[in-house]
């Protein structure tokens, strides 16, 4: 198991479990930290609130970000990630069920590295998660090194 975490920002417990199972099915060994809303995601990234004791240098290797989140939506989370010098190059993939062109365009305009629609079918979802994991965790050269 890699010591570099994936931050999964997902408010739907079923989708979070499905994503974790899909990553595991593809032998993605990274620990997955789940944030259930935008505030929790930002607290994790910037070591605030319940994450105040977390090592700020220990950034996740990847953020999988849903858009429709309580408290602070995914686009605002992305804006704050890109606005902070500590996280502005953090690989961030929007993983959403949204089919709105406006969401896709805003996501890219705010600096998303990729925009992936969640497949409805479990087997398709497992395949998509495997491709995401292979690319972002194996092939991609992280801005933070290995």
Automatic annotation (TrEMBL):
PROSITE patterns, per database record: RESPONSE_REGULATORY
GO biological process terms on file: phosphorelay signal transduction system
Domain of life: Bacteria
Annotated InterPro entries: CheY-like_superfamily, Sig_transdc_resp-reg_receiver, TCS_response_regulator
Record domain Response regulatory: where: 5-133
Claim: Phosphoprotein is one of the keywords in the record: yes
Modified residues (4-aspartylphosphate): 66
CDD domains on file: REC_Rcp-like
Keywords annotated in UniProt: Phosphoprotein
Protein name stated in the entry: Putative methanogenesis regulatory protein FilR2
Organism: Nitrosomonas nitrosa
Name of the gene encoding the protein in the UniProt record: filR
